[in-house]
């Protein structure tokens, strides 16, 4: 197992603290591995195997303990000491009313508790009020570019940056495709399997969706429009143009289900003049750009949207709240905010003409404040900084300490 040091450094601060550690994120992003790494680190601290209990609820051998009472009884039978017990529960959303059992573990045992889940609504049910003030949540993502290069360097010995950049853009960052040397076709097969399992298990089964074909068509519409503004009505109108009537409420419900499974994220527009969040024409980004290429095959025609997707994921991975900026009739790809920090980012493929330079720099130059502003592209050599707006190579940006 390779370390995910940035995540561990954050979670480590809460080891032995009286809060439940909740790790969420898209399926196959590394949550289960993180639980195992935490157990390894605990053993390095001198914690014995007898004081560590791990349950993976995706395993059929644990099928009979998927209710709060049976779950509680099972764990109670394993806790045999007054010493601190470390409890690790993987994909806990599969347990009915799991919050009741976990809350009881806090009350009844001397326990340090870690759980994972692949649904953003994990803690939004009424029962989660039992845990108010008793948990801290961590979001895991597929590998960043820096993490991917570390995996490739250690496991395969690949150090050629041009190869690594191309691989990351085309295949994304799911850990499963970077722990061994796969050709692109095989990598896409693995990503397709991940995509199918997310749609089937985390969306269709959880939300009792009957029209799977429609769900897949909505998802493909979103994938094909990464980087473009649209709305649920846009999708409904698209189906109407295909002589297929689809209720807009159904579209909203299906999109919400996809968002809850972490496979897509909605990004609202923000009007810089009106100082308000707009309720129409949002954008959607994928949890990992490799999903789009695995489903459609790699197509260079939407490269700008793919690069936007990479930058968006890097911003949220670093804890920023991200909006699409609107300033009069212009659009800024990203306004990113974190506490008192803010930055503005435009993303494009290549700065090949004066027209492109004007299009990308123009909106940022319209913003008259002191916060950093960047135009990010695939140009490795850049000298066209304009009035404080900096032009920077994509990979230099996402691995930098600029934000």
Q: Concise description?
A:
This protein has about 400 residues and is an alpha/beta fold. It is built from 14 helices and 12 strands.
Overview of the structural elements:
The protein is α/β, with parallel strands linked by helices. It has 2 domains: 5-140, Rossmann fold, CATH 3.40.50; 145-398, no CATH class. The chain contains 14 helices and 12 strands. The protein has helices at residues 5-12, 31-44, 68-78, 98-108, 145-155, 161-171, 184-207, 212-224, 232-241, 248-260, 290-296, 303-317, 354-365, 394-398; strands spanning 20-25, 52-56, 85-90, 111-117, 135-140, 264-271, 276-286, 321-327, 330-338, 341-347, 373-377, 390-393. Strands 7-6-8-9-10-11-12 form a 7-stranded mixed β-sheet. Strands 2-3-4-1-5 form a 5-stranded parallel β-sheet, sandwiched between helices. A hairpin with a 2-residue loop joins β8 and β9 (330-338). α5 (145-155) crosses α6 (161-171) and α6 packs across α11 (290-296). The protein is globular. The relative contact order is 0.09. The mean pLDDT is 93.
């Amino acid at each position: 197992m390779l370390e995910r040091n940035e995540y561990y450094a954050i979670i480590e601060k809460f080891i032995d603290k009286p809060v439940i550690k909740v790790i969420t994120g898209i399926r196959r992003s590394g949550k289960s591995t993180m639980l195992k790494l935490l157990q390894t680190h605990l053993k390095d601290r001198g914690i014995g195997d007898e004081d560590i209990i791990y349950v993976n609820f995706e395993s059929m051998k644990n099928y009979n303990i998927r209710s709060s009472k049976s779950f509680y009884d099972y764990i109670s039978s394993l806790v045999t000491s007054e010493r601190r017990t470390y409890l690790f529960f993987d994909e806990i959303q599969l347990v009915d009313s799991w919050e009741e059992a976990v809350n009881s573990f806090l009350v009844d045992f001397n326990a340090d508790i870690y759980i994972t889940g692949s649904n953003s609504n994990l803690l939004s049910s009424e029962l989660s009020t039992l845990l108010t003030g008793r948990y801290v949540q961590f979001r895991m993502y597929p590998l960043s570019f820096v993490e991917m290069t570390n995996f490739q360097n250690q496991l395969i010995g690949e150090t050629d940056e041009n190869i690594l950049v191309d691989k990351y853009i085309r295949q994304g960052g799911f850990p499963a495709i970077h722990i061994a040397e796969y050709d692109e076709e095989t990598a896409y097969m693995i990503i397709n399997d991940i995509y199918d399992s997310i749609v089937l298990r985390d969306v269709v089964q959880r939300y009792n969706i009957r029209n799977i074909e429609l769900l897949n068509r909505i998802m493909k519409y979103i994938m094909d429009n990464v980087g473009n503004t649209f709305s649920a009505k846009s999708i409904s109108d698209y189906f109407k143009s295909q002589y297929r009537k689809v209720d807009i409420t159904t579209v909203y419900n299906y999109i919400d289900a996809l968002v809850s499974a972490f496979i897509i994220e909605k990004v609202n527009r923000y009007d810089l003049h009106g100082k308000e969040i707009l309720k129409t024409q949002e954008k959607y980004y994928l949890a990992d750009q490799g999903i789009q290429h695995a489903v459609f095959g790699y197509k260079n025609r939407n490269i700008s949207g793919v690069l936007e997707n990479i930058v968006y994921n890097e911003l949220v991975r670093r804890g920023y709240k991200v909006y699409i900026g609107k300033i009069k009739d212009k659009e800024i790809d990203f306004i990113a905010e974190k506490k008192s920090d803010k930055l503005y980012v435009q993303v494009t493929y290549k700065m090949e003409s004066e027209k492109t330079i004007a299009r990308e720099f123009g909106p940022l130059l319209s913003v008259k404040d002191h916060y950093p502003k960047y135009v990010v592209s695939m140009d490795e050599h850049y000298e066209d900084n304009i009035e404080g707006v900096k032009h920077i190579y994509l990979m230099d940006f996402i691995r930098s300490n600029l934000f």
